[in-house]
Amino acid sequence: MHYGYVRALDSIDIEVHQGEVLGLLGDNGAGKSTLLKVMSGVHQPTSGEIRVHGETSTFASPADSTHAGIQMVYQDLALVDAQDIATNLNLGREILRKGPLGWLGFVDHRAQRRRSTDELAKLGVRTAAMTRPVEMLSGGQRQVVALARGATRVNGEKSGILLLDEPTAALGYEQTQQVQSLIRSLAEQGVACILVTHNLPLAMTVCDRIAVLNRGRKVADVPVAETDNDQLVGWITGARPSMFG
Ligand SMILES: Nc1ncnc2c1ncn2[C@@H]1O[C@H](COP(=O)(O)OP(=O)(O)OP(=O)(O)O)[C@@H](O)[C@H]1O
Ligand SMILES: [Mg+2]
To answer: Which atom of ligand 1 is nearest to the CA of 34?
Structure first.
């Protein structure tokens, strides 16, 4: 993936399986967000291909990737500030009710709040009240809403793929624990998850496998059980040579 003359990703080959959590590590500017944006159709790769369940797929837009079962939670959140939590959770899949003349067209806010409350309870996620406008939430609370939105959309979809770009960056202790168990429970239900994070202990706790990017190249790809903190730091900083020569 090139941005003009900047080569953000260089010959990356990466895969994630159903029920697996893949950690994607790397320093600032290593290419992590770019990789997720290519996988979710935000950017079109300069060359290369994406396969979903073995089928070559081209994503002209995020809507295309959503159609293929891919949900991305962005680093730069993408919530509608002026709307409440329930409305944000239901963006793009609004529940409509019949208007006075039998026309469809009114968003059924009460039904949306009920559905979202149920979905969050199932996922074990707690947010502020559903009617709270997102602009009144703290950074961490917003992050939980953004993550919950992605999670409710892949939950129960056996072939769902969830891409998380630093979902815990702004979170306190308890919320980080919640996110951690949320990711694990989605994986247990068969969701494939890619987790970008700078939090090494979190990555080592929640991931099955870890890939490290360094200046746009993949320098490591290992099961968590076969690596440790020092090795990972070495690959992230470049002090440790690439596994791939
Ligand atoms: N829209 C863009 N236009 C031009 N260059 C970009 C754009 N987005 C990212 N880049 C460049 O691509 C490279 C990779 O950036 P990317 O955002 O993928 O890094 P990252 O690994 O997500 O970093 P961070 O941990 O800071 O979020 C950087 O050199 C960055 O400057
Ligand atoms: Mg990033």
So the answer is: 18
